[in-house]
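Run folding on both entries below.
>entry_1
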Amino acid sequence: AVPGSEVIYTTRFTNQGKQAAGNIVITNPVPSNTAYVGGSAQGTNTVVMFSLDGKNFQTPDKLKTKTADGKERTATPAEYVLIRWVYQGELPAGKAGDVSFRVRIK
């Protein structure tokens, strides 16, 4: 892909069990040499969170980092390294869903 162009990543999940499934969490990395496009993560019935370090996940408004001089600031979408979708409620047996996000090639 050409630098500056955008790529869409989609993950499909299916409950192949015989009962409704809960506690569904999907985590995708932001591929290297790309930057997450702010506001592009989507998923029906999900809460979307992001991580700068692969350990701590927060919603964008709560995701903080420090500047070179030690001051705290809100992280920018280009700094996100992981995206996590937490499905709300239960996914019925045999049903499926999709989550997606866009990145810009560096």
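>entry_2
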Amino acid sequence: EAVGWWMVIGLGAPPEAALNAARLEQLSLLRGRAVTLGAPSTPCDAEDSDGTYAHWFNEIDVTYVMVRPDYYLAASSSPEALRRQCDEVMLQLHMQAPNHQTSRCA
């Protein structure tokens, strides 16, 4: 059901741990999803049953990716960089922060 939506995917790390409530609300306004990907038998939203995603995440040395609905990789990063990249993507989309005082997430 996550296919065709904005997604922030964390490998073994919930995106909610890296993004504050304002950023998660903006993702929600895009009908986006925060998804934790993990190995079989680990707490996660989706299983990486054959390790393909784990291999890819490790190869590009990231914890999180942000994927557009057309499957274009909008961001890939560590937790700190994800916050900055999320802000940049939201600015490009002309998204306003939930408090409507600025276009940047607080």
